[in-house]
């Protein structure tokens, strides 16, 4: 009986040399291109890569030691040739090359695949991972690029040479100062902070009530009602904006002339109503989704013990569906806070919101203040995302505890 | 069970018969309060339904008033055309008899009606609005109305007044007119009577007393027109009979010449054709315009080749939305697959990379793409720095279709990944392993077993992305330039720049129809209650 042999562990050395050398060749070519000598870079890169692949995998068994040594060496070379920026670039290349050398040399590329995979399948799996990584990079890079640019000391949308050299001179907070000191931006911020919360309160209170109604067992005309309530999310914003533009100007004239309200108040009312209706589908969707898992016997138990429907709602039902209500509210808030088209059509200059000011800034005067605002908004969305995640976990925990 | 029931029934009867006998004996089953149970249950059900509706009602009314009614208003505006009939009521009335096929300009009655209408329109400053409206249909109308409006007050029609007053001084007194048109003369002098009413209304609007104002020239013109066009004034009053006899001898004013003097365009027969064509209160003209056709007296026909823009725009919108949807599918599929097959902890971490762009402001992402793609942007800078692209041959990646497609693919990608992920995470991985153990190759196992199960996710995501893409405005406006814009940018242009709101409404209606069809399909395939967020 022959023994079943499973080949694990390290690949043959010439394979490692080929792979690491090839990778070094590419990096060398790119680096050489930067300094204007692609061919020298190519040869040098291949040689250094192959050398590293051999040395690291045969003489340096401790991975951490090997990788830090490579990073240090590359950073030093970079420092000699290109100053501080060169050192950072060199360290980066060293880190990537060092990791790659161990990854190939120790056969770590087979970690994600079953033992019986052929080399072709392994190659395909790693290429697949690489493609997915590239897509993730595509998703996240634009957002990450904005962050450093907002600290630009110049009035440009591009990285200046000072910034690339990591020279402190190239960075400043002037765009943030600009944001906090310009009256246009402050008015826009104030308007956004007035409009979005009020619109959110309206859509959350009406939406939660309706979602509770919709989740009852016998609702006549449920589908058409649902279709109408979700439609603000589906109808393109430009069409909503067009319709609202016509209708709300008539409504505004009526309120100003016949009821005698002030112009700016009516302006806010129009924008708030428009934003509230745009946020409603999100509240409906999230709250009905939460109510699907709601255990009805709890309300019956409460009623059995003598609670009236209002008490039951606030003391029993509300705490349990609160996570859904809050996440619906967050969606409604971000919808209003991020909305441009409708406010552009319905509002007047006195109701200029933050996205509107950004839109003007992008179209007319390109000022990096927009990037500072963008950075602040990214931080806000990270906070919102974290809140949502915490709420989701809490909701799951609560539901796990409730019987049924 | 059966035994027990049978046990309680009288002996010798089957359970069913027993129940029937019981019912015949005691009548229908009763609830605790004595009403029949069936009725009581129906009432409870009704109360439940009413309570559900009462909970939904506030929101439903809110959405109807603040959203559905405005959209209905927009739909109406796409066919509404009351402005011509409101501003020029007499002209519209008389022009309806005019034969547009002939080569002759309209006759005297149209000129008189137009003169009267224009006088009122100018006083109310409505003629410029009308001019702007008609200018969408025929260039030059706007300036024509403006020029004519300046002249209409200075026409030579004062000779009529002088001649009537010379005949009988009482024609100069408003009281005599009021008395005359209150009686049977109103039937004999239709145009004069109508004009007198308008004159009274106009004075009331201005807060003046009609009886203290001088009789304006156009009233004399109307009277002259009525009298010389066979008014039956026999026996109405002697003054009128005398005026009719004398009017035949009056020195006439050629109104068509007066108008031609004000603006020679009024002698152009196309002007009158356009006026007649757009006199109805409901027009298909806006819809015709929005599909590159035009309304002509002979029906709807295609516009000349060089004026067709909306067909191209609609096609481009559809094409680019399809390309964006396609690239979203291509990019989202591997990511969704990876997320649903990785261990929970890793998948949740990677999910942040999907959710962060989803939660980031649209304008932040659009400005980020502007930073990335422009000629002095990050991508070009990196390519130049690496020496892959020469400094003077930087790639043009923004303000064209490419820029719009890249930026919108990025913005809409989370909307594709999330539905795909929620479908794929329900597919058991054991199916794939089973297929492979039965001898399928990797490709066959994927294509025949896994892919068909993931199709609902692709469908849900595609419709969502397509619906969102087809109505996008902000991103194409900022990164689209001239060649990368959508139909929505044209709608916005008509709303805010050209002010041709009817055309904007018609374009919006067409777009809305497309979206509603897709919405309906989405509801059929996925169900709106199954939309998931985050």
From TrEMBL, chain A:
Q: Which family does it belong to?
A: Belongs to the binding-protein-dependent transport system permease family.
User: What's the protein called, per UniProt?
Assistant: ABC transmembrane type-1 domain-containing protein
Q: Which GO terms describe its biological process?
A: transmembrane transport
Matching CDD domains: TM_PBP2
Location in the cell:
Cell inner membrane; Cell membrane
Its membrane topology: Multi-pass membrane protein
Q: Origin organism of this chain?
A: Primorskyibacter flagellatus
Q: Quote a single Gene Ontology cellular component term.
A: plasma membrane
TM region(s), chain numbering: 12-30, 36-57, 87-104, 125-151, 193-214, 226-248, 268-294, 320-346, 366-391
Q: Which residues form the ABC transmembrane type-1 domain?
A: 189-388
Q: Which InterPro entries match?
A: MetI-like, MetI-like_sf
Ordered alphabetically, the record's keywords are: Cell inner membrane, Cell membrane, Membrane, Transmembrane, Transmembrane helix, Transport
* RNA-binding among keywords: no
Automatic annotation (TrEMBL), chain B:
What is the source species? Primorskyibacter flagellatus
Q: State the protein's name.
A: ABC transmembrane type-1 domain-containing protein
Record keywords: Transferase included? no
What are the leading ranks of the lineage?
Bacteria, Pseudomonadati, Pseudomonadota, Alphaproteobacteria, Rhodobacterales
Q: Where is this region: Disordered?
A: 1-31
Family from the record: Belongs to the binding-protein-dependent transport system permease family. CysTW subfamily.
Extract one GO BP annotation from the record.
Answer: transmembrane transport
Q: Where are the transmembrane segments?
A: 52-72, 318-339, 346-364, 402-423, 455-474, 501-522
Q: What sequence ranges are listed for the domain ABC transmembrane type-1?
A: 314-522
GO cellular component annotations of the record: plasma membrane
| Alphabetically ordered keywords of this record | Cell membrane, Membrane, Transmembrane, Transmembrane helix, Transport
The membrane topology noted for this protein in its Swiss-Prot or TrEMBL record is: Multi-pass membrane protein
Q: Where in the cell is it found?
A: Cell membrane
Q: Tell me which positions the record assigns to the signal sequence.
A: none
Q: Does the keyword Hydrolase apply?
A: no
């Amino acid at each position: 009986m022959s023994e079943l042999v499973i080949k694990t562990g390290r690949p043959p050395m010439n394979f490692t040399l080929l792979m690491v050398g090839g990778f070094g060749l590419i990096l060398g070519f790119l680096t050489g291109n930067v300094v204007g000598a692609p061919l020298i870079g190519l040869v040098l890169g291949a040689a250094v890569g192959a050398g590293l692949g051999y040395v690291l995998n045969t003489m340096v068994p401790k991975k951490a030691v090997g990788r830090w040594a490579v990073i240090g060496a590359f950073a030093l070379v970079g420092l000699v040739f290109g100053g501080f920026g060169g050192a950072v670039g060199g360290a980066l290349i060293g880190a990537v090359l060092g990791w790659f050398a161990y990854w190939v040399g120790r056969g770590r590329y087979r970690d994600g695949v079953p033992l019986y995979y052929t080399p072709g399948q392994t190659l395909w799996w790693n290429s697949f991972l690489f493609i997915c990584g590239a897509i993730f990079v595509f998703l996240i890079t634009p957002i990450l690029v904005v962050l450093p640019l907002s600290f630009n000391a110049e009035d440009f949308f591009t990285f200046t040479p000072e910034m690339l050299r990591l020279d402190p001179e190239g960075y400043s907070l002037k765009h943030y100062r600009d944001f906090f000191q310009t009256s246009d931006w402050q008015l826009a911020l104030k308007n956004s902070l007035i409009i979005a919360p009020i619109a959110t309160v309206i859509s959350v209170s009406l939406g939660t009530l309706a979602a509770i109604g919709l989740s009852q067992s016998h609702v006549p005309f449920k589908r058409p009602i649902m279709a109408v309530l979700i439609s603000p999310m589906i109808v393109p914003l430009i069409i909503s904006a067009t319709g609202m533009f016509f209708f709300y100007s008539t409504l505004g004239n009526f309120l100003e002339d016949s009821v005698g309200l002030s112009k700016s108040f009516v302006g806010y009312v129009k924008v708030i109503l428009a934003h509230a209706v745009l946020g409603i589908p999100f509240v409906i969707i999230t709250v009905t989704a939460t109510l699907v898992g709601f255990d009805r016997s709890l309300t019956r138990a409460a009623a059995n013990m003598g609670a009236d429907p209002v008490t039951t709602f606030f003391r029993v039902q509300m705490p349990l569906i609160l996570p859904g209500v809050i996440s619906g509210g967050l969606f409604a808030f971000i919808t209003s806070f991020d909305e441009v088209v409708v406010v552009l059509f319905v509002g007047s200059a006195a109701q200029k919101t933050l996205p509107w000011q950004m839109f003007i800034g992008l179209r007319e005067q390109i000022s990096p203040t927009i990037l500072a605002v963008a950075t602040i908004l990214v931080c806000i969305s990270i906070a919102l995302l974290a809140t949502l995640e915490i709420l989701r976990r809490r909701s799951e925990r609560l539901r796990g505890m409730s019987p049924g | 069970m059966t035994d027990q029931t049978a046990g309680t029934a009288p002996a010798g009867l089957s359970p069913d018969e027993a129940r029937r006998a019981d019912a015949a004996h005691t009548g229908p089953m009763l609830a605790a309060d004595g009403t029949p149970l069936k009725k009581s249950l129906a009432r409870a059900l009704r109360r439940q339904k009413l309570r559900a509706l009462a909970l939904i009602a506030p929101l439903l009314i809110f959405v109807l008033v603040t959203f559905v009614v405005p959209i209905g208003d927009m739909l109406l505006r796409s066919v509404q055309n009351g402005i011509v009939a409101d501003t020029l009521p007499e002209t519209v009335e008389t022009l309806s008899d005019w034969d547009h096929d002939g080569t002759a300009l309209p006759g005297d009655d149209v000129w008189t009606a137009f003169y009267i209408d224009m006088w009122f329109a100018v006083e109310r400053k409505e003629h410029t609005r009308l001019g702007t409206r008609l200018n969408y249909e025929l260039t030059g109308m706007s300036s024509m109305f403006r020029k004519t409006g300046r002249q209409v007050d200075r026409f030579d029609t004062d000779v009529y007044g002088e001649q009537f007053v010379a005949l009988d001084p009482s024609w100069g007194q408003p009281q005599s007119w009021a008395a005359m048109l209150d009686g049977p003369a109103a039937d004999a002098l239709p145009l004069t009577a109508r004009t007198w009413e308008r004159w009274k209304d106009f004075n009331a609007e201005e807060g003046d007393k009609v009886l203290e104002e001088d009789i304006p020239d156009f009233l004399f013109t109307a009277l002259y027109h009525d009298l010389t066009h066979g008014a039956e004034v026999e026996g109405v009053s002697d003054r009128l009979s005398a005026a009719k006899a004398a009017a035949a001898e009056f020195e006439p004013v050629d109104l068509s010449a007066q108008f031609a003097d004000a603006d020679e365009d009024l002698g152009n027969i196309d002007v009158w054709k356009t006026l007649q064509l757009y006199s109805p209160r409901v027009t298909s003209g806006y819809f015709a315009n929005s599909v590159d056709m035009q309304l002509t007296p002979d029906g709807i026909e295609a516009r000349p080749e060089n004026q067709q823009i909306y067909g191209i725009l609609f096609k481009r919108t559809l094409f680019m939305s399809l390309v964006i949807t396609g690239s979203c599918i291509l990019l989202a599929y591997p990511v969704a697959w990876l997320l649903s097959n990785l261990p929970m902890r890793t998948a949740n971490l990677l999910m942040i990379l999907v959710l962060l762009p989803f939660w980031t402001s649209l304008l932040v992402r659009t400005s980020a793409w502007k930073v990335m793609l422009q000629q002095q942007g990050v991508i070009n800078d990196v390519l130049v720095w690496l020496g892959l692209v020469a400094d003077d041959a930087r790639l043009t990646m923004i303000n064209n279709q490419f820029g719009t497609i890249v930026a919108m693919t990025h913005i809409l990608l989370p909307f594709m990944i999330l539905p795909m992920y929620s479908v794929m995470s329900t597919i058991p991985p054991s199916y794939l392993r089973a297929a492979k153990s039965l001898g399928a190759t990797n490709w066959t196992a994927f294509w025949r077993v896994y892919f068909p199960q993931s199709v609902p996710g692709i469908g849900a995501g595609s419709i969502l992305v397509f619906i969102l893409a087809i109505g996008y405005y902000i991103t194409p406006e900022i990164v689209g330039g001239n060649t990368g814009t959508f139909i929505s940018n044209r709608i916005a242009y008509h709303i805010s720049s050209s002010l041709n709101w009817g055309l904007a409404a018609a374009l919006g209606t067409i777009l809305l129809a497309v979206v509603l069809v897709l919405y309906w399909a989405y509801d059929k395939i996925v169900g709106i209650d199954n939309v998931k967020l985050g």
